[in-house]
C-alpha cells in the first residue's frame, strides 16, 4: 500500500506555518497586496507563484483529466464490443487503450510534485495510486456474478467501484493488471480465454476478458472522476462538464476548507485575507518541501528503497507494465517543471525558483541543478539497462539512482530553509 505519512505531515506542517506567520513587507495592513509596496524578493516570489500555478499545475491536471476521460471512453467501448462479440475487439484497438493508459499515467506521475492540497486532503492519491494490487481481492470480485453485474451498470457501476471496492483494487494499478503482463500489452486472444494468473488458477477460478473489461471500465470511470476532481479542485476555470460531474453528480469535495477557494486561487491569493498562505515565502516552502522534496524522498526512500533494501520486496510500482523506472523519472520531471517555471512548451525560467536562487544564491542554485541532473542521469541508466525494476530491484544502478535522488531531496530542503530566512 502506498505510504502517505511523509507528505501528509509535510502538508500539515506547511499549513501550520501559514497560521503562525504574518506578512511583513508585502502587507498594507488592510489585508490586501499592493504590488508597488512589495519588496523585490516578494514580487519575484509572487511572479514565480503565478507562473507555477498557471503553467505547471493547471496544464498538468488538465492533461490528466483529458487523458483519463479518454481512457474511460475507450475501455467502456471495448467492453461493450467484447460483450457483444469477443472477436470484434481488435488488437489495434486494445493497443490504443494501452497507449492511452501510459499517456495518462505519465501525466499523473508528472503531477506528484504537488500532491499537497487536493490530492492529499481529499485522499485522491491513495484512492487512485495504491500498490501492490490486491490480487486475492480481485479474484473475489471478478468471480462474483452479482458484483460483476453491479460494476456493469454505467454510472452506478462507477459509483459502486469507487465506494465499495478497496483502494487496493482501484485506480491505475487495477487497470494496469488488465492491460499489461510481463511488460507487454495483453493480447486480445488472451482475453478471449480464461485468466491464467496464478492468483486465479491456484483457486480454480475461471474468469474471462468479459469480466476483466467490465471491471477495468468501471474502475477507469472512477479514476476519471477523481482526476477531474483534482482539476476542478485546483482550477476554477476547469471545463464546465467536469465541474458538473464532480460537484453536482458525484458530489465530491473540491474547495479549500475554511475559504471555499480552489487550491489554485488559494495559492495565488497568498498574503490576502482568506488565503491560508500568510507570506510568499510560505508558498515557496510549500512548493519546495511539501511538493518537490516530498516526492524526491518518496521515490528514493520508498518507491526504490523499500524493494532495494528488502524492507518490502513486493513494494514495486507498475510491475505489470514494467514501467517503474519511467514512473520515477516522470516524478523527477514533476520536480523540474515545478522549479524551472513550467511544463515543456509553457516554461518561463525567468519566473522560477531556479531563477530566484541564481539571482540571490548562485552557489545553492548550482548545487540544486547538479543534484537534479544527477538524478536524471542515474534514472536514464536504469531505463537504458533494459532490465525492469521488478526483475532486478537490488542492482548497482538502482542504488546509484536511489542515492542521487536522496541528494536531490536534501538540496531541495536546503533551498527551502535558505529562502525561509533570507
Automatic annotation (TrEMBL):
Question: Has UniProt tagged this entry with the keyword Nucleotide-binding?
Answer: no
Keywords associated with the record: Signal
Q: One GO cellular component term, please give it.
A: cell envelope
Where does the UniProt annotation place the signal sequence?
1-19
Source organism superkingdom: Bacteria
Q: Domain (Imelysin-like): give its ranges.
A: 58-410
Against CDD domains, the record matches this protein to:
Imelysin-like_IrpA (cd14658)
- Please state where this protein is localized: Cell envelope
This protein is called Imelysin
Amino acid at each position: 500500500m502506498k505510504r502517505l505519512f511523509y507528505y501528509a505531515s509535510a502538508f500539515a506542517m506547511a499549513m501550520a506555518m501559514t497560521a503562525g506567520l504574518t506578512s511583513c513587507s508585502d502587507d498594507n495592513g488592510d489585508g490586501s497586496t499592493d504590488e508597488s509596496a512589495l519588496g523585490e524578493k516578494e514580487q519575484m516570489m509572487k511572479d514565480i507563484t503565478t507562473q507555477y500555478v498557471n503553467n505547471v499545475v493547471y496544464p498538468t491536471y488538465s492533461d490528466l483529466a483529458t487523458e483519463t476521460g479518454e481512457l474511460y471512453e475507450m475501455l467502456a467501448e471495448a467492453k461493450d464490443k467484447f460483450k457483444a462479440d469477443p472477436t470484434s475487439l481488435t488488437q489495434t484497438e486494445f493497443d490504443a487503450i494501452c497507449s492511452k493508459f501510459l499517456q495518462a499515467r505519465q501525466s499523473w506521475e508528472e503531477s506528484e510534485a504537488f500532491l499537497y492540497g487536493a490530492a492529499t486532503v481529499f485522499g485522491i492519491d491513495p484512492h487512485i495510486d495504491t500498490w501492490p494490487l490486491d490480487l486475492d481481492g480481485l479474484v473475489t470480485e471478478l468471480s462474483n456474478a452479482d458484483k460483476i453485474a453491479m460494476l456493469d451498470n454505467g454510472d452506478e457501476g462507477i459509483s459502486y467501484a469507487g465506494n465499495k471496492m478497496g483502494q487496493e483494487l482501484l485506480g491505475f494499478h487495477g487497470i494496469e493488471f488488465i492491460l499489461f503482463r510481463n511488460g507487454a500489452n495483453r493480447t486480445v486472444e488472451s482475453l478471449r480465454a480464461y485468466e491464467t494468473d496464478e492468483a486465479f488458477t491456484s483457486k480454480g477460478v475461471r474468469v474471462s476478458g468479459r469480466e476483466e473489461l467490465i471491471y477495468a471500465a468501471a474502475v477507469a470511470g472512477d479514476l476519471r472522476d477523481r482526476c477531474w476532481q483534482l482539476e476542478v479542485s485546483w482550477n476554477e476555470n476547469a471545463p464546465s462538464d467536469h465541474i458538473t460531474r464532480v460537484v453536482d453528480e458525484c458530489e465530491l469535495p473540491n474547495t479549500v476548507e475554511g475559504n471555499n477557494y480552489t487550491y489554485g486561487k488559494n495559492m495565488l491569493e497568498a498574503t490576502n485575507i482568506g488565503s491560508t498562505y500568510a507570506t510568499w515565502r510560505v508558498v515557496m516552502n510549500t512548493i519546495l518541501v511539501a511538493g518537490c522534496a516530498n516526492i524526491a524522498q518518496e521515490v528514493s526512500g520508498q518507491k526504490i528503497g523499500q524493494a532495494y533494501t528488502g524492507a518490502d520486496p513486493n513494494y514495486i510500482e507498475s510491475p505489470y507494465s514494467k514501467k517503474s523506472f519511467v514512473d520515477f523519472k516522470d516524478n523527477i520531471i514533476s520536480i523540474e517543471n515545478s522549479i524551472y517555471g513550467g511544463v515543456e512548451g509553457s516554461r518561463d525560467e525567468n519566473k522560477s525558483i531556479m531563477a530566484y536562487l541564481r539571482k540571490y544564491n548562485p552557489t545553492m542554485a548550482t548545487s540544486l541543478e547538479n543534484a537534479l541532473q544527477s538524478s536524471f542521469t542515474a534514472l536514464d541508466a536504469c531505463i537504458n539497462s533494459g532490465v525492469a525494476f521488478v526483475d532486478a530491484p537490488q542492482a548497482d544502478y538502482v542504488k546509484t539512482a536511489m542515492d542521487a535522488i536522496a541528494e536531490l531531496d536534501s538540496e531541495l530542503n536546503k533551498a527551502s530553509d535558505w529562502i525561509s530566512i533570507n
